[in-house]
Amino acid sequence: MKFDASKCLTAKITEIKPSGIRKFFDLLGDMKDVVGLTVGQPDFDTPWHIRNAGIRSLEEGHTYYTSNNGIMEMREEIAKYQKRRFGLEYDPAKEIIVTVGGSEAIDLAMRALLEPGDEVIIPQPCFVCYEPLARLAGATPVIIDLSADNGFRLTAEQLKNAITEKTKLLVLAFPNNPTGSVMRKADLEAIAEVIRETNICVLSDEIYAELTYGEKHVSIATLDGMRERTIVANGFSKAYAMTGWRMGYTLAPEYFTKQMAKVHQYGIMSAPTTSQYASIEALKNGDADIEYMKGEYEARRRLIVSELNRIGIETFMPDGAFYVFADLRKFGIDDETFCERLLHEHKCAIVPGSAFGESGRGFARLSYAYSPAHISKAIKRIEEFIKTL
Amino acid sequence: MKERILEYLEKDARMSHSDIATMLGITVEEVEKTVAECEENGTILNYRTMINWDLVDKNTVTALIELKTIPQRDKGFDSVAERICHFPEVKSVALMSGGFDLAITVECKNMREVAFFVAEKLATIEGVTATATHFELQKYKENGVVYGTEKTDKRGNSW
Lengths: 389, 159
Description:
The structure holds 2 protein chains of 2 kinds.
Chain A: H1 11-14, H2 20-28, E1 35-36, H3 48-59, H4 72-86, E2 96-100, H5 101-113, E3 119-124, H6 130-136, E4 140-145, H7 156-162, E5 167-172, H8 185-196, E6 201-205, E7 230-235, E8 247-251, H9 254-267, H10 273-285, H11 287-310, E9 323-327, H12 335-346, E10 348-349, E11 351-352, E12 363-367, H13 372-387
Chain B: H1 2-11, H2 17-24, H3 28-40, E1 61-69, H4 78-85, E2 90-95, E3 102-108, H5 111-122, E4 128-135, E5 141-142, E6 145-146
Antiparallel strand pairs in B: 1-3, 1-4, 2-3, 5-6
Helix pairs in contact in B: 2-3
């Protein structure tokens, strides 16, 4: 009998489309001399003292699995860090799981909470993983299209309109990739007021929490009645420039953590040991590194926004993360065409906004995790391109 | 703010005043005024280019010379140090703690020239009691810049 692989694969997985960013990066392929503002990760190397702690752990022979939920010292340091930086309090023994990056944290939450019939509210534009992960968990994503008119923030009105009897989970991803927008305390209060009247849970992806340039990040879990129903996902990638170490964690009440721990324990065993030792060092002695890198991003943010506005691309000053979401609508061509032509005709790469959801159409994401000289070079190419439009 | 301006210029002397102003959220006039003041009062000494001469066909020899000298009344080590500063082949002079007094870097065409410089010019200065010369074999890092590293973006285009 001839083997037919298509009969083996689930519809659930084959129906998931490759992400829009992936599509664009494939286009980029091996093109030479491209000046890109595409990369969604810090341009700093991981600070040396953190790398060194990882190396030392190897020298000392820490090459074994750790406890499933992570080294106890690491969880204790996470608890201290979260209290110190954001006022969140979680019990290291019962309420924290160390995960393989923030992405696993999101996956754990979705798999523990969702089943067929459930609806998940996902405000877009947003990072590309929520919708596919919700589908893999069997649930139905319900998209809210955020609007540039209010800085891509979620409003209580939009939320109310999206809630049905089936709604199980709301995904909140602020500071946001790709828009750079931030939900302030008052914005979150309005959301919490709606949520409190329901039995809906919140998955708060706070991976960019350290990168806010105005007010300090506020976690929805700090608001009245929200901690009990919130799973916070966070990690080390953006704050400490540690993307390759794949270190993240969940913060959630014991009844959630206990169940998510099963998914983690059977699927992963334990997060990488070397990375955990490096992360302990980051948590203990890395606050100054965060401040330094944040200061650099802040300066580049001003540079890129001012340069874009100078060349005639209207761009609002984002409050967080390291992206600007530039408005291309006045050029009369669609964002994908804009980005593809910019790439082919002027060798400059930026990511079309529609890769992050329909409501991102007409925009483009520009990362400013690049040196000022690199940013200026890219802007020059964009300027030359729009002169031809 | 002055410190931030100077930090940017120290890292990249060619960064424009208007970019610095934008990045720090201040006016170009403020940057220009600060830079002018710093140039005037000697805070900014010079704008120079760091060059990896290994990649150019120019062979020079660099040596670090440890020098011991007898401090002079009222002037300490200053007058000897100042005299050494006059030689064009001397790149840097610093007073050190520890086993010797002055650390001097010199750059010459070849080893013979260095030897001649030490014997004829340094050792003969009044008060100098001893010298020890160390030749530089390979430079790895200077002024915070690592030599010979390719400037490639190591980040994968994944997200």
